[in-house]
């Protein structure tokens, strides 16, 4: 089962440039969360800070009682064993075949025998649909297969937290759909805590249990998927519905003249909230809630057509 990540008042700068400040959220154990935001808002920096690759200016990140923002290197090393990371490009060693790439963390961090390593590697290859490709080099396979190989490597140490840094980057919509289904199936199988950084709106609308949005150097909102998909908050509504009207512009934030020119325009109606993607076997994940449950609990009427199997998943539909 995954572990909870508690983030309190986290702030990160590079020199005089503030990336984001006073970010506070709790990533629930075993759930799938997505972090969104316009380009350049520090989403990847957030992931690197969570795993201790970057030190925040202030704030805390509590994982199993340890604040990794201020702990010793020895404590950080132990906490990092809880993590698996899928990098944007897979980050495979080009001179190693897939088998050796995936076996690498086991050989570096455990004392397992080669027979034990082989059993684990073949299991992860099977989970990610890569059986039969283990002798290929990363340059001999497609981008989608490299992503899956990177995911297999992220899973070999049986992590309780898995971070995905733009897993859909460079993939076509069909491969992205396959990858999204794989992520949901994996969460159901291993019950780890998943955090996905993505720009893909369909992924954000259909995959996670919770959604966060980084914008203008702060966390605009974080909460259950239905909360953000029914939100009237302009920046959330604009981003999740892929609209031009709203506070986000080409350079992140629109200036006063641009906003004034839009003053007589209204954001289009919220599109229907789609059904959440379910595991392939049809058995609900532990953290999966009944469609519309959050809206009913909050007394909120979802947009017309929400939670219907046959609605279009496209933004603005």
From TrEMBL:
Which InterPro entries does this one have?
AAA+_ATPase, ABC_transporter-like_ATP-bd, ABC_transporter-like_CS, P-loop_NTPase
Domain ABC transporter residues, every copy: 5-241
What GO molecular function annotation could you give as one example from this UniProt entry?
A: ATP binding
This protein's UniProt keywords: ATP-binding, Nucleotide-binding, Transport
State the SMART domains in the record.
AAA
Ranges of Acidic residues compositional bias?
A: 254-265
Please tell me whether the keyword Nucleotide-binding is annotated for this protein. Answer: yes
Region named Disordered: 254-317
Protein name (database record): ABC transporter ATP-binding protein
Give the species this sequence originates from: Nocardioides cremeus
